[in-house]
């Protein structure tokens, strides 16, 4: 068949796709062909067809750029089109779906077709499902990993540490408390507004932006170590260019969130709620969701005058206030008619401040009916808003609510609420024999519903006003009940259902139901065509919301909801369900067979039936975790589906929460992990690379720039040499010097990683980094890897126990992919070395390499890590060897070779690195010693001084924890490149205590004798 070409002039996400008219399919003898072969002159392309009725006319074929660029064909030219056979790789996908093992060649063909865009999304999904269902043995896992490596670029590396950005999509709803009031907003809109208004934005070369937030204006919901949910201070926002694809995680009940592949969520496993990267999550995992949010009973009354005055003056020029004309301050500004009819222009109150007597003041449009200016937020008002959101609409002449004629009780209640709230008598009309419209013909009220309440004029843009999220839970329940009475129905006696076409409304309803402790689920109906006897009609996307009827009507034949259940296996409860530890509980034996237990039953079990004295140490740990879960405010829902979707926005986003690494977001609340920065002052990479490379081992290092820390490795190295290298340039440097220190760019390593994002499913392991990451390690030739895990109060990992678990995960994952992994748990409770900031840290690293400066902790750390690497490749006494390389000058010589190869000056000296000329010395106020150092405080101080944007900004420490300090002695110096940045740093220093200096600690703090407490009263705890 010959068809004319229509170039679509757009890309199909890397896939070879064409569009063909439905009418042309008859010539192929099939309804939906699997593949089409398109021939033009000497060129042929096999493509995936999409079928249309309207986009491409009969006789034409639409070509995406992936096809037209190969054929190099103009619009209107003819191509020959015929059926093509299925790709051979589909046979191997079917083979895996039958549970059979695959060989390397079979894996390679599947991966190659996926990378080249020859497989549909459904075919790729089938492959991943086959892997998940039937698993991989170690030989298969190795074959698949190598197939992923062979379909992309490769670079021989001995060690590569990767820091990925963690972000969520623009549309992700989040709960924000701004100046004490809660609202639900898209994270993209919120972050964009902050960044665009702020003068405190840090811009990065890759297009990423970070903005620090000072003060307490913004808070977000987060959970703490006791699993309690509360609002926490927001300290910063972050956005970076979006990848082409995102991961959508669906939970039971159809809550979902769209995230980048490296963003983390919180999973329940072995009784712990752990942060896990998205790529490690699999179907069936249980993710943390809030069981109940936080009540914010802040709004008791709405002052409509105050709210109207927040609007632009031109929008309120026709609004008047009654009850003020007799005030002398007002009266002199009124004309005769305004005095006579008691009409004070509301815009006059923008200039004159007067008291407003609540019992007398009303508002109106000149010839309209007045309404109450102060609205009591009570049960009647909550119900009225619920009725309107369910069945209301408005236009220029008024506000209307629709009911069925049989709903007399609701009609009477709505009219009563209108009278109570606004002082207006509503009327009613009958548009047809089964319907009643409650009518409030009042232009001002319509204006208020639209501009003040922002509640929406019709079903498509309907939303819940923000004030509903800031009233008591009892009033929120009144709203929800009224909404479901107006727009819902009860099914099967226990399920309440409501339907809407407003995506924003269904999202808000999910958050509100969560706040009230309701379990819920949603379903979505796509747009379509609905046929009526007299016509057909285009329908819009619709959402059905399901929740617990017993919460609404107070009775139920079925009250169980997934949100009220705890999965037994994931908590390890089944491991302690034995006698004598649990005695006298009739359900004990069921624990080993049933899947769930309710929160209440678990609390009862722990309180009444556990004999703690008979528990082993391991069982006590399980019981401690169970008690925390049972008393916490977090529930757990299983992952129902994971899919890859196309990103629709320019950026993806993240939040930084003070002292917490999570926030609530998603379509239906889900706990998400937020980005965290690394430690400060750590120059390990700048020293490790030349040490290892000087001994003949290959160790290219790709590094990140700082996001919230004072300086990333790339920022530091950039003060000495260029870091923006291409992969070709990087290869040349490595071939010449064995190492490099570059900024991680867009390297085409293991490209199938982005497609088979769920490769970890069949491996049945539980790492915190995952197989797709390790495939990239394999792609760069990694054979030995050391993971540095800083641990302690000032680090990301707080306890040695958590660090040990993380280390084991790395090691297990590495062994599966034939990469030898060791981990180093390192001290992270104070800065490494004495310098903080890009230029200052680079200068200190160079001084260490040149043996000009002794920095014991930094040298100890890097020689330990280098020693582990060296011993992994067969060297003995690795630390001593690394120290010898450092002391002999070999590491410095290698470092200068790398500088020259990357385009820098190999003769550079520490004094050549510019540092800020504006300084401030912090001195000790008395004798003592350094008791503690706040890493976060010093990071904030260095950033305030201008690091990392201003490379010469930062801090030099003279004293560390345990050092003796004399009165008047310098403790640290702040460096800045401008006077204004130094002043900003001093403001931060004045507000924060970042170092503790005091007398030597003794075990006995104070002796208290009986005589001192004889007249005091104490409350004793045990």
Which helices and strands occur, and which strands form pairs?
Blueprint (H helix, E strand, L loop, with lengths): L1 E6 L9 E5 L14 E5 L2 E10 L7 E4 L1 H7 L6 E6 L5 H9 L6 H12 L5 H14 L3 H13 L22 E6 L2 E6 H11 L3 E3 L5 E4 L5 E6 L5 E13 L3 E7 L4 E4 L4 E6 L2 E6 L8 E5 L10 E3 H5 L10 E4 L5 H4 L4 H5 L3 E2 L16 E4 L5 E2 L1 E3 L2 H13 E4 L2 E7 L3 H15 L4 E3 L5 E6 L2 H10 L20 H15 E4 L3 E6 L2 H13 L4 E6 L2 E4 L4 E4 L2 E7 H5 L11 E3 H4 L24 E3 H10 L8 H15 L2 E13 L4 E7 L4 E4 L4 E4 L10 H11 L4 E5 L9 H5 L9 H11 L1 E5 L27 H9 L4 E8 L8 H17 L3 E8 L7 E2 L1 H12 L6 H17 L5 H11 L1 H12 L16 E6 L4 E6 L1 H10 L9 E4 L6 E2 L4 E7 L2 H13 L3 E4 L11 H4 L9
Describe the structure.
The protein is α+β, with helices and mostly antiparallel strands. The protein has seven domains: about 1-85, Beta Barrel (Barwin-like endoglucanases), CATH 2.40.40.20; about 90-135, no CATH class; about 175-290 and about 635-675, Hedgehog/Intein (Hint) domain (Endonuclease - Pi-scei, Chain A, domain 1, Beta Complex); about 300-375, no CATH class; about 560-630, no CATH class; about 685-910, Pyrimidine Nucleoside Phosphorylase, Chain A, domain 2 (3-Layer(aba) Sandwich); about 920-1000, Aldehyde Oxidoreductase, domain 3 (Alpha-Beta Complex). The chain contains 30 helices and 50 strands. The strands form 14 sheets. Strands 7, 8, 9, 10, 11, 12 and 37 form a seven-stranded antiparallel beta sheet that branches. Strands 1-5-2-4-3-6 form a six-stranded mixed barrel. A six-stranded antiparallel beta sheet has the order 14-13-36-17-15-16. Mean pLDDT is about 80; it is low at about 155-165, about 555-560, about 675-680, about 755-775, about 1005 and about 1010-1020.
């Amino acid at each position: 068949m010959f068809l004319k070409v229509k170039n679509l002039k757009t890309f199909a996400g890397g896939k070879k796709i064409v569009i063909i008219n439905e009418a042309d399919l008859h010539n192929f003898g099939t309804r939906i062909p699997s593949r089409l072969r398109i021939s033009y002159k000497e060129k042929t392309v096999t493509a995936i067809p999409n079928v249309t009725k309207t986009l491409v006319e009969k006789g034409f074929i639409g070509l995406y750029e992936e096809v037209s660029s190969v054929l190099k064909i103009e619009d209107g030219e003819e191509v020959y089109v015929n059926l093509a056979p299925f790709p051979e790789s589909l046979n191997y996908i079917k083979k895996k779906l039958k549970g059979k093992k695959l060989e390397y060649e079979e894996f390679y063909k599947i991966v190659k077709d996926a990378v080249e865009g020859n497989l549909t999304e459904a075919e790729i999904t089938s492959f991943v499902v086959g892997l998940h269902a039937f698993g991989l043995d170690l030989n298969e896992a190795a074959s698949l990993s190598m197939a992923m490596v062979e379909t992309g670029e490769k670079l021989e590396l001995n060690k590569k540490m990767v820091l990925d950005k963690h972000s969520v999509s623009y549309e992700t709803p989040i709960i924000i408390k701004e100046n004490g009031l809660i609202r639900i907003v898209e994270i993209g809109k919120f972050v964009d507004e902050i960044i665009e208004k702020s003068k405190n934005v840090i811009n990065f070369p890759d297009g990423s932006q970070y903005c620090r937030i000072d003060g307490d204006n913004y808070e977000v919901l987060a959970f703490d170590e006791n699993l309690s949910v509360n609002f926490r201070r927001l300290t910063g926002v972050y956005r970076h260019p979006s990848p082409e694809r995102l991961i959508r995680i669906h939970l039971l009940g159809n809550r979902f969130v769209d995230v980048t592949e490296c963003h983390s969520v919180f999973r329940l496993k072995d009784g712990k709620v752990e942060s896990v990267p998205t790529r490690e999550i699999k179907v069936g995992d249980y993710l943390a969701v809030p069981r109940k949010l936080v009540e914010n009973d802040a709004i008791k009354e709405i002052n409509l005058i105050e709210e109207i005055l927040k609007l632009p003056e031109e929008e309120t020029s026709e609004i008047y206030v009654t009850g003020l004309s007799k005030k002398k301050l007002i009266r002199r500004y009124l004309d005769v008619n305004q005095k006579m009819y008691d009409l004070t222009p509301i815009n006059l109150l923008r200039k004159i401040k007067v008291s407003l007597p609540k019992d007398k003041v009303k508002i109106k449009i000149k010839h309209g009916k007045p309404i109450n200016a102060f609205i009591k937020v009570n049960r009647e008002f909550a119900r009225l808003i619920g009725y309107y959101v369910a069945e209301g609409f408005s236009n220029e002449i008024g506000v209307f609510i629709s009911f069925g004629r049989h709903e007399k009780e609701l009609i009477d209640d709505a009219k009563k609420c209108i009278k109570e709230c606004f002082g207006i008598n509503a009327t009613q009309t009958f548009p047809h024999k089964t319907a009643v419209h409650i009518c409030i013909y009042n232009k001002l009220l319509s204006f208020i519903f639209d501009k003040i309440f922002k509640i929406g004029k019709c079903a498509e843009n309907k939303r819940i006003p923000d004030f509903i999220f800031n009233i008591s839970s009892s009033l929120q329940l009144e709203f929800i009940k009224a909404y479901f009475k107006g727009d819902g129905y009860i099914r099967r006696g226990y399920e309440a259902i409501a339907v809407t076409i407003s995506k924003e409304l269904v999202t808000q309803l999910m958050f509100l139901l969560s706040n009230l402790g309701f379990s819920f689920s949603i379903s979505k109906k796509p747009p379509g065509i609905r046929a009526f006897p007299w016509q057909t009609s285009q329908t819009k996307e619709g959402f059905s919301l399901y929740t617990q009827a017993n919460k609404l009507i107070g009775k139920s034949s079925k009250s169980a909801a997934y949100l009220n259940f705890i999965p037994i296996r994931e908590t390890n409860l089944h491991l302690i369900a034995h006698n004598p530890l649990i005695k006298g509980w009739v359900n004990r034996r069921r624990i080993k067979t049933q899947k769930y237990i309710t929160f209440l039953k678990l609390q009862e079990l722990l309180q009444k039936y556990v004999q703690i004295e008979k528990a082993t140490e391991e069982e006590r740990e399980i019981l401690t975790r169970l008690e925390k879960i049972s008393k916490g405010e977090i529930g757990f829902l299983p992952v129902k589906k994971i899919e890859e979707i196309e990103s629709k926005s320019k950026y993806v986003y993240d939040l930084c929460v003070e002292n917490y690494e999570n926030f609530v977001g998603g379509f239906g609340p889900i706990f998400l992990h937020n980005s965290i920065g690394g430690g400060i002052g750590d120059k390990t990479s700048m020293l490790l690379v030349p040490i290892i490379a000087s001994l003949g081992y290959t160790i290219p290092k790709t590094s990140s720039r700082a996001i919230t820390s004072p300086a990333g490795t790339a920022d530091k190295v950039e003060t000495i040499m260029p870091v923006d290298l291409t992969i070709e340039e990087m290869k040349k440097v490595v071939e010449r010097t064995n190492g490099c220190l570059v900024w991680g760019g867009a390297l085409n390593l293991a490209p199938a990683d982005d497609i088979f994002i769920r490769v970890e499913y069949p491996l049945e392991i539980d790492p915190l980094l995952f197989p797709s990451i390790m495939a990239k390690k394999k792609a760069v030739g990694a054979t030995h890897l050391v993971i540095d895990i800083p641990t302690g109060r000032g680090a990301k990992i707080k306890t040695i126990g958590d660090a040990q678990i993380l280390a084991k995960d790395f090691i297990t994952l590495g062994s599966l992919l034939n990469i030898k992994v060791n981990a180093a748990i390192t001290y992270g409770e104070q800065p490494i070395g004495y310098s903080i900031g890009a230029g200052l840290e680079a200068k200190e690293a160079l001084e260490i390499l040149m043996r000009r400066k002794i920095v014991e902790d930094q040298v100890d750390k890097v020689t330990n890590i280098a020693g582990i690497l060296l011993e992994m490749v067969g060297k003995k006494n690795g630390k001593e060897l690394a120290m010898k390389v450092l002391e002999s000058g070999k590491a410095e010589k290698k470092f200068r070779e790398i500088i020259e190869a990357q385009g820098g000056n190999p003769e550079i000296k520490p004094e050549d690195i510019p540092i800020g000329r504006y300084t401030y010395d912090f001195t000790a106020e008395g004798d003592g010693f350094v008791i503690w150092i706040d890493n976060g405080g010093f990071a904030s101080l260095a950033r305030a001084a201008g690091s990392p944007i201003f490379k010469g900004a930062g801090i030099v420490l003279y004293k560390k924890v345990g050092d003796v300090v004399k009165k008047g002695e310098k403790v640290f110096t702040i460096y800045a490149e401008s006077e204004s940045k130094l002043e900003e740093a001093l403001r931060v220093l004045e507000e924060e205590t970042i170092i503790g200096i005091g007398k030597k600690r003794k075990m006995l703090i104070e002796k208290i004798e009986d005589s001192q407490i004889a007249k005091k009263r104490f409350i004793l705890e045990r």
